[in-house]
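Anyone? Bumping this.
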Amino acid sequence: MSKINLVVPDIGGAEGAEVVEVLVAVGDRIEKEQSLIVLESDKASLEIPATEAGVIAELRVAVGDALSEGDVILVVVASDEEKVAAVETVSSADTASEASPEDDQDQTQQQNVSASSAGGTRHTESTSMTIAIPDIGTDGAVELIEWCIEVGDAIIEGDSLVVLESDKASMEVPAPASGVLAEKLVTAGSEVSQGTPIAVMVLEAGTATQQPSTDASAPSEAPIASAAEQPPEERALEAETIAASDASVARGDGKDLVYAGPAVRKLAREFGVPLSKIAGTGPRGRIVKEDLHRFVSDALSKPVGAAHAGSAALPEVPDVDFSRFGAVEIIERSRIDKVTAANMQRSWLHVPHVTQFDDADITELEAFRASLKSESQSRGIKLSPLAFILKASAVALNANPKLKSSLAQGGEVLVYKQYCHIGMAVDTPSGLVVPVIKDVDQKSIWQIAEEIGAMAAKARDRKLAPADMQGAVFTVSSLGGIGGTGFTPIVNTPEVAILGVSRADVRPVWDGDSFLPRTMLPLALSYDHRVVNGGDAGRFLTQLTSLLSDIRRQLLGP
Ligand code: CAO
């Protein structure tokens, strides 16, 4: 393995020029003349190009360093074939930073042995392979929203190839082997589903892979083993882990962690746009070219002073440097958090919300639930009030079908649904997710309770498939187990109503003669006032509270 130091060339005698930008990262494949870093002296700023092609094994500089002629910027290994070794060397250096060259060799050999003993096909000459969409947990089509690499790029097994997005989640499809991307078979924006061939890659001589090369005509045999083995939720959440080999992390002082590739950085410099102003829509919040174009065209189309002139443009919330007031920590948000934020904002901006409140007297329901405690234990099913609330909601929804309809064709028509799948907000460490319990109206309370437990566990273990989060006609968000006396939930568009459930408590209730201790459950129904009127909502909520107050009514149906 030949390692080459790339050093600062003659920069006109400037001593101690400051590194203002690092354009590459460990694991990147670089070409001759590709810009590596930007240096700034008191006279000028200049990009330092690569004098050799290869894969970066070590990066010796960071933003803020002062460099002079001859200082080492980075170390490259010479060929694609050795890119894998370079990255392995770097990752093993995390645990054994002082590993000797002999150790490196041993590790590489061991990895080759274990790859072949795991059933991998050893390619002795370059072969090509068609990559197809793996099992993504849904039979339906999803949109391929972004290509993470370009034709001609070297790929390491596990690198993200494309990003897929359904209406509920997004996930990255990793490369099943190392090689070079030879051809893209679909473009960003295409609809794909399991088995759709998306690319052809050339496997390099000496590459070991779990997967035999696949003919384009037969893509469906578990095309991407490594992706298929990984739970889809985990794949969607992979973005949370900032890989050491991410080509786009600006390694500064941590304050301005911006994700963007060199081409985008260059373009941004040409436009004079600070990347920190742009919200990235690529994987890991990476800023892609389209984001930059959108930013520039938005800026150009905005009338000067629009935000202050009473127009529809939203005034910007300025970025505040909180570190001026005390210590701060900046953390990358999970993809789920970011998707939720976008959905919430969209709904808040598009939907005229009204929230209506009522309390259900669940004294009898709670007594009944308590009487089922030992049965619930012997069945191994946790029976919280939520199962009854979902069942009662289904009955009330079937009786008031407008509450489970959706607007379509730009508001021209309403879609009435003849099924009753209900979404259930689940609070997880990675963020808010809404798995869906199907056909709630046709299930028993025990079945619903069992599914609540199973879906909540799946959500918290990040094992929800996109199909588990699709098809809801209505959502229930229960904070009853957490506390609070009331809240106003935001409608989960394109649904038109959502029920917020707060914690029940015992209150004195006047029955006409005396105050009685009753267990009261606070309910809040938010709805889209374009579709649901106060009367519709009032009827629904009255029926719901009556069903919960006398659970025998749930048996009667609409
Ligand atoms: N009033 C009083 N007690 C309640 C209650 C209510 N409305 N709802 C639940 N409880 C009790 C349960 O009976 C349980 O008590 P025991 O352990 O003594 O039986 C306890 O509170 C905890 O319940 P739970 O939260 O574990 O179970 P659940 O079936 O009520 O809810 C789930 C399941 C997945 C919906 C819930 O765990 C959750 O994630 N809730 C958060 C939803 C959320 O974040 N909504 C906000 C969305 S907008 O940001």
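Late reply, but here is one note on the structure posted above: The radius of gyration is 29 Å.
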